[in-house]
Amino acid sequence: MQTRFPSPNHARGFSIIEILGVLAVLAVLGAIVTENILEKMRLAAREAERASLSAVAGALEKNVVRTKVIPTAANLPAVVAADLAVALNRVTHTAQGNARWFWTDPGCVVGLTATNTLPFTQTADGSVVQPTRVRLLVISSVGAPLPSPAITAPTQAQFDGAWNTVSGGVPPALSSSWTGSPEDLSLQRLEVGALFRRLILENVDNWRLAPYSIETTNTLTTIGSNGRREMWFLSGTVVNFHYSDNTLQAREYLIEDASYTFENGRWTRFLRYGQNRNVGWFGEMVDRFLAAPPPPNGTRRYSTQQWVVDAMYQFLYCFGQWSLDYFYGGPPWPHIPGYEQSSAGATGLQDYSSDLLIN
């Protein structure tokens, strides 16, 4: 018996419609897969750009603290590139080759006068005016490039608009000239002013000069009797305190707002004008007292919380000095300095504290 095999001419093939259907399904699947891959690539690019800008901000902050110099926005890329040891275009451009924008707040004030702005190079005087709006901003896109030519000197409105732009938004300065997707846009804010620390030095010695120096001890600066200096220095600044004979007494790193007073030929931490360290519960209580809002009254004549603290300090200090004289004097001899100043402090403390409570 012979087995017969079907002739090839009788084998059933795929119709054109079936082939087209399969190709259509493959095309749809391919489009879905491709879109998913592209979306993941876009997400990865956005995350990588945010990480790069964060590295730029971190490098700038470390450089400012180390060198005590704040560059302009134009010089920022070169400073960061040198600090990170990378090519300049790694800072000025994204991985996609798009140029980044670097802006300085036009309202920035820092230095020796109210008209000084960036760049800022710290000297022994620090910033005499309180640093205000010391802010830098970096804008970039991993999608459509930012408009060309770049805006290198933004107006105050343009800078504030970009600074206040929420995540997923487009700065007003770009809303009409840039056609990219908001998700592709990154803004890195650099609040450099937050790196400054307030330092207050006061000389309450009646006849000695109060010497101090900043960073190096080679050049001394002195404050006259009953003089006071208020300055702002970058975090980590070394403050050297000297005795009245100019020899070094102590050295501190300025890492928070602080105040010191010079009296009897030496420096000490003081209870007023700044946040105090290592002052115990009493100092913390004084800090809370000074930070509290005044009573909401309209008849209070002149008192402030600071005046109450000053009077209390005068009484405590002068009473201690008077005790060293074995409380010599007293009524009816009020001309004795220790007694007279203690009495004035007690009177002031009573008057100021009572007046502060008047409603």
Concise summary:
This protein is α+β, with helices and mostly antiparallel strands. Helices cover 35% and strands 21% of the residues.
Can you describe this structure?
The chain has 359 residues and is an alpha+beta fold. Among the domains are: 169 residues, no CATH class; 67 residues. Helices cover 35% and strands 21% of the residues. The chain is built from seven helices and 15 strands. A four-stranded mixed beta sheet has the order 11-8-14-15, with no helix packed on it. The longest helix has 52 residues. It is elongated and about 125 Å long. The N and C termini lie far apart (125 Å). About 2% of the residues have low confidence.
Mean pLDDT: 83
The major pleated sheet works out as: 4 strands, mixed
What strand order characterises the main sheet? 11-8-14-15
Order of helices and strands: HEHHEEEEEHEEEEEEEEEHHH
Q: What labels describe this entry?
A:
359 residues; alpha+beta; 4-stranded mixed beta sheet; 4-stranded antiparallel beta sheet; 15 strands; 21% strand; elongated
SSE layout and pairings?
Elements: H1 16-67, E1 69-70, H2 76-84, H3 89-92, E2 101-104, E3 109-111, E4 120-121, E5 129-132, E6 135-141, H4 156-163, E7 185-191, E8 196-203, E9 210-214, E10 221-223, E11 228-234, E12 237-242, E13 248-254, E14 258-263, E15 266-269, H5 280-291, H6 305-324, H7 337-357
